[in-house]
Design a protein that fits this description.
mainly alpha
Length: 344
């Protein structure tokens, strides 16, 4: 979803800047003149209601209410991502009709993922803006989808699938940084670029993250040990930045999702294999998500994940889950200046 802080120094293709709104709109393949009322309902809800729950500042408002929708008319994968998020929001707002809306969300989400993966194989100045916005939507789709009843056992598999989509999008974003920062997308990108360097020990409870390095002491395989150590070090940097962003009343969710993008491939493999060390590290990442527990798309996710991890790992690992469980068991402290917290 997000570009890593070093992205602004990444190599950018030499193509001249391109206005993505110059692309032609999608052509309908419908063989009937009947309106797709269900989809019209979703696009209307997104552009009038849902977008307000996704923004961290008023600068983001135009991106989600106007630019993203216009760009979606030119890229099917982005449009379906928008429709899926709107359907999930309506499911949250109207529990009595949630089953119908969740079915619509699943349909659009699955089609969006297939189409996005095809686009990722052929990145260009023509699709990089849409891919970036889609990767933002991936966050919401991932975390709302992870709460579904069918994911009761272990780490939700589709969460890893979406992590890989995020990483693919991030690679594209690094290639086309100049094009993105000279577009309306910069309203979102700047929250990563504004990150400041802070000493980890000055962030409250940062020693809890450092303590995770002890998980690697008995691991004999050098590659595995390096992967775990790197995952912890990157989590410490992300935790520190997000803690200070939050204390200063600035958005921290976008910086939080730098972490999945910088994880070593080996760590993700071990996470997919449900290795206890990998799951314990992920449990500590969940604290950053819990800080936004009042947002409808993150509500309850951290607590649910901690329960799944506890049920997956052996009892000897439960002591390493104590702090994340204590944090996620209580509501996050309110932080002044958050727009999203007033929009749910």
């Amino acid at each position: 979803m997000v570009v890593t802080p070093q992205s602004n120094t990444a190599k950018t293709p030499s193509e001249p800047l391109f206005d993505p709104m110059q692309l032609p709109n999608l052509e309908s393949l419908r063989k009937t003149s009947e309106l797709a009322i269900d989809d019209l309902e979703l696009i209307h809800h997104f552009s009038t209601v849902t977008y307000r729950t996704l923004i961290d500042s008023e600068a983001d408002a135009r991106v989600w209410s106007y630019d993203a929708v216009r760009l979606g008319l030119k890229h099917e994968f982005l449009l379906r991502g928008i429709l899926a998020v709107a359907a999930l929001h309506l499911a949250d707002l109207m529990p009595d009709e949630s089953a119908a809306y969740e079915l619509k969300a699943t349909t659009h989400q699955n089609l969006a993922l297939v189409a996005a993966q095809e686009e990722l194989a052929h990145p260009s100045v023509y699709n990089c803006h849409a891919l970036f916005l889609f990767s933002c939507l991936v966050i919401f789709l991932t975390f709302v989808g992870s709460r579904h009843p069918q994911d009761n056992d272990g780490l939700p598999k589709h969460m890893l699938d979406w992590f890989y989509v995020l990483r693919g999008c991030n690679s594209v974003m690094q290639m086309y940084w100049t094009h993105l920062e000279n577009s309306s997308c910069y309203a979102i990108l700047k929250e990563v670029k504004k990150g400041e360097n802070h000493s980890a020990h000055t962030a409250e409870d940062s020693h809890r993250i450092i303590d995770l390095l002890s998980l690697t002491k008995d691991i004999e395989d050098q590659e595995d040990r390096r992967a775990y150590s790197l995952a912890v070090h990157e989590l410490l940097k992300t935790y520190t930045q997000c803690w200070f962003q939050r204390q200063n009343g600035r958005p921290w969710i976008i910086p939080a999702f730098v972490w999945p993008n910088v994880l070593p491939e080996r760590y993700l493999q071990m996470l997919g294999d449900q290795k206890p060390q990998a799951l314990v590290i992920l449990a500590h990442f969940a604290i950053l998500i819990h800080w936004s527990d009042e947002d409808w798309f993150f509500r309850g996710w951290a607590r649910d994940l901690l329960q799944k991890i506890r049920a997956t790992v052996d009892e000897e690992w439960h002591e390493h889950l104590r702090w994340p469980e204590e944090v996620t068991a209580r509501p996050p402290d309110p932080i002044p200046g958050s727009i999203c917290s007033t929009m749910q």
